[in-house]
Amino acid sequence: MHDCIFCKIIKNEIQSNIIYNGKLSIAFEDINPQAPHHIVIIPKRHMVAISEADKNELEEIFSAVDIIAKQLNINDSGFRLVVNQGKDAGQFVPHLHFHLLGGRKLNWPPG
Ligand code: AMP
Ligand code: ZN
Hints:
111 residues; alpha+beta; HIT family, subunit A; 5-stranded antiparallel sheet; binds zinc ion
């Protein structure tokens, strides 16, 4: 999509630290990390919401989460996977993304 920041990251028009590059999805470091490890995982196809993702995309994203968590050594200590969807959740970038957060104790409930 023309003006989407995450589509620009996919096309390499905006620099990011990409740590996983799959067929249907890509993952990079969040520019404003909320934990020692904060990775954003996105489908390569532009979409706003989970309902638009197909099962191959979701399967690859969840498999990427597993691979990345193991790579970052947070699989055993634990991590949180978050989707902010829509205005009540405060979705800022309108391209579906999964936040993977780890490396510190995370509070619950979230704000
Ligand atoms: P959300 O509020 O769920 O839409 O979160 C959007 C996330 O994207 C935030 O955590 C931002 O820090 C992150 N973000 C925005 N622009 C960039 C960028 N250019 N590179 C990496 N992360 C970004
Ligand atoms: Zn996009």
